[in-house]
Amino acid sequence: LVESQGNPSTDPLILWLNGGPGCSSLGGLLTELGPFRPNPDGKTLYENQFAWNKVGNVLFIESPRDVGFSYRSNSVPADTIYNDDKTAEDNVLALQSFFERFPEYKNRDFYVTGESYAGVYTPTLTDLLIKRI
């Protein structure tokens, strides 16, 4: 989660999902829409003037499971088949956990967005969220 530079207590929550499938959302955070970007020297950062957290709180989720720093718990069978619907289910569980830990983000505008294959993830997730509300 990257808090808004505006008014974090009232600004919307924006969920960012990278595509791929299989690309870490940290790629979006660190090289595209996060508050800082690496300088060519690879050792220092500069402020990203187009950072999305200038207008909202941005939540980056590693998706699908096993991408980036996400992982499968030992209780999930190794032969479990993952598809777009399963990824949406996992993301709903992740969001439920997030809102339980950070209830202050629960009752505000919420946007689901991403790039590339997230063009499949985002409507699948949004459809599931609408059905569960």
UniProtKB/TrEMBL annotation:
- Tell me if Hydrolase is a UniProt keyword of this record: yes
Q: Which Pfam families match?
A: Peptidase_S10
Q: What is its EC number?
A: 3.4.16.-
Spell out the molecular function terms from Gene Ontology: serine-type carboxypeptidase activity
- InterPro entries reported for this sequence: AB_hydrolase_fold, Peptidase_S10, Ser_caboxypep_ser_AS
Has UniProt tagged this entry with the keyword Protease? Answer: yes
UniProt entry keywords in alphabetical sequence:
Carboxypeptidase, Hydrolase, Protease
Q: Name one GO biological process term.
A: proteolysis
Q: Which family does it belong to?
A: Belongs to the peptidase S10 family.
Name-wise, this protein is Carboxypeptidase
Q: Which organism is it from?
A: Toxocara canis
What lineage is on file?
Answer: Eukaryota, Metazoa, Ecdysozoa, Nematoda, Chromadorea
